[in-house]
């Protein structure tokens, strides 16, 4: 990579763009729909059905009687609760016992229990911003890994705030993808040209980890590692893959081909969204190989996107990747070579880190020089 491009990319940090600094969050959520919420005592199954129906990844848990937002629960939280809460699933128990166990969890356990069991990792479970706060205030937090926040778009009275009342009609949800869309929509208003037309995609990522449970043997020739990358070979059970997905720092699992399907070829992307369509009646599919699980799940939902796998070449530019995630409605893009083998993974956090006031991704990578291999240790 040329020194000119390096200087250009690093120049995005430490010099906050005026437009981002002075634009308010109201412009990010102006077209956002009203909040869809779920009651604390609703079941996990009800939450999964609601997430699937609206194509959401997260829901506020709202106590209507007390008019209080208890927190945000997302499908990854559900993934961790279900897949790590059954440590002997499909091993020591019989299939019938295993099915009953997960069916009971989905049908009988209240969604608020998932929120209570959610590990915080030092972060607030619910971030609330005011609509007049600058875009950069939320962008900086998202560049550090925050996925979504509530934005209060209607000023509440001091009396309501004192009483601790929260009326959901006063709020809108702002997700990482919304901030990416804002940046792309307003790129002509941004000074210092913060969306470069050059600079390869691999400048944002580190090398992909090897398949199965061995760490990558590739050495990074780019800047620092951005996102921890995990992959599993086809044939592993969906439950095993989801358990890995529930580990802190894992954003997606690449399903890698073996044998006749193409040694090392990226076949599927597994993300938390692939769990939101699961029901008590289909939970047995977690016992299937992960590639079979994905195909069966998408057969039951014709509206789902095939494979949900979006890739780019190593020389794709930042603006091309941003337009790709918006066009494909995905939260990550895999960087692959000509043989469709994974080289890296670009997440929305990686993208937004390019526009933050500080390069949080580079700072984090400095403390994480190696890629973490697959582990079956509990995330809790």
Structural descriptors:
380 residues, alpha/beta, 3-stranded mixed beta sheet, 14 helices, 11 strands, disordered N terminus
Description:
The chain is of the alpha/beta class and 380 residues long. 32% of the residues lie in helices and 14% in strands. It is built from 14 helices and 11 strands. A 3-stranded mixed sheet has the order 3-4-5. A hairpin with a 5-residue loop joins strand 10 (332-336) and strand 11 (342-347).
A few lines on this structure:
With 380 residues, the protein is an alpha/beta fold. It has 14 helices and eleven strands.
Compute the number of strand runs. 11
Count the helices. How many?
Answer: 14
Order of helices and strands: HHHEEHHHEHEHEHEHEEHEHEEHH
How many strands, which pairing sense, and closed or not: the largest β-sheet? 3 strands, mixed
Mean pLDDT: 75
Strand order of the largest sheet: 3-4-5
Please outline the helices and strands.
Layout: H1 3-10, H2 18-22, H3 44-54, E1 58-63, E2 68-74, H4 75-84, H5 95-108, H6 111-117, E3 128-130, H7 135-142, E4 148-152, H8 158-163, E5 171-175, H9 176-185, E6 230-233, H10 238-245, E7 253-256, E8 266-270, H11 290-299, E9 311-312, H12 318-328, E10 332-336, E11 342-347, H13 348-352, H14 360-366
